Amino acid sequence: MKKLVLALAAAAAFTGSASAADMAVKARPLPQPAPVFSWTGCWISGGGGGGINKVRHDNFDPTDTPFLRQQNADTGMTGWLATVGAGCDYQFNSRWVIGAFADGTWSDITGDHAARIGGVGDMAIGRMKNDWSWSIGGRVGYLVAPNVLTYVNAGFTETHFTDTNMFDTASNGGLFTGIVVPGQTFNGVFVGTGVEYSFDWLPGLFLKSEGRAAWFDRKDTRAFCVTSGTDCNSFGSPAFITDDNIISRRPITYMAKTELVYRFNWGKQPVVARY
After folding, report:
1. How many whole angstroms separate alpha carbon 176 and alpha carbon 226?
2. Which of 173, 188, 181 is closest to 248 using CA atoms?
3. Burial of 85 (0-12, 13-18, 19+ CB in 10 A)
4. What angle is formed at CA 226 by the lines to CA 224 and CA 231, rounded to 5 degrees?
């Protein structure tokens, strides 16, 4: 009888210890994973950067027989830019993001343009300036981390070059010739790539860095004389400049920019994602 009582007491003690151990484990909740937020929503952005342009020039007289191409040269241009933009994104399949956007850029990207005006040997030089552009397009991105998006984009773009005053640097010490190459607006396409990162210390604020290249259609123009009289500082008659001498240009532009982005929906739409 004594042995039976001791056996029951031991069994009760063992069962009580096991129950207490179970209760202790259950009392300590497992750590929860950090919440992952959706990139679905709309945003605005603003920032700045720099640009490098290459403008391909052809000068020719379409009345020549046989056809004579007087000059073929490239103009290099560099400078700064400021930009603003807006768009909307949609996150799907946990780690993919697609979106549409539009942006505008104000710039001071300049370079020297040399052109033959009025015939072979009549060389003039002016300062070209690319002063604005705008773009509309779409992008596809992949989340390499919950708060880091890498992406590529593409779309339509338009850019503008201001009037170019031409100077005779060779014979007149840089005096204005009275000849102006008119400003032009070019249409083209662009492709780019970038990365966007969210700040932990301020919900909704992101930092975006992007590089972009754009190719534009070739466009012809004619230099014109803005001075009184008929000689335009010995560069030939205004009628010859206006009617015969054609300047054909095709720009290629490259830009790199960094922007602050504010997302309106950040933190409102949790999603399940595995990284």
Report:
1. 11
2. 181
3. buried
4. 80
Best CA proximity match to 213, nearest among 137, 122, 162: 137
Q: Rounded to an integer, what is the distance from CA 223 to the centroid of its chain?
A: 32
State the Cα–Cα distance between residues 183 and 104, nearest whole angstrom: 19
Give Cβ neighbours of residue 201 (< 8 Å, ≥ 6 apart). none
Query: Looking at the domain assignment, is residue 120 inside a domain?
Result: yes
**CATH code for position 191:** 2.40.160.20
Domain count, the chain: 1
Q: Is residue 22 part of a domain?
A: no
- Two structure tokens written together for 6: 């001791």
Distance, in Å, from the CA atom of 84 to the CA atom of 44, rounded to the nearest integer, reads: 8
CA atoms of 239 and 213, how far apart (whole Å) = 38
* Backbone angles phi and psi of 257, in degrees to 5: -145, 155
CB atoms < 10 A from the CB of 178, how many? 21
Return d(Cα 51, Cα 229) in angstroms, integer: 40
**Per residue in 166-185, pLDDT tens?**
887 655 567 777 788 899 99
Residues of the chain whose pLDDT is less than 50? 4-5, 8, 18, 20-21, 23-24, 33, 119-121, 230, 233, 236-240, 242-243, 270-275
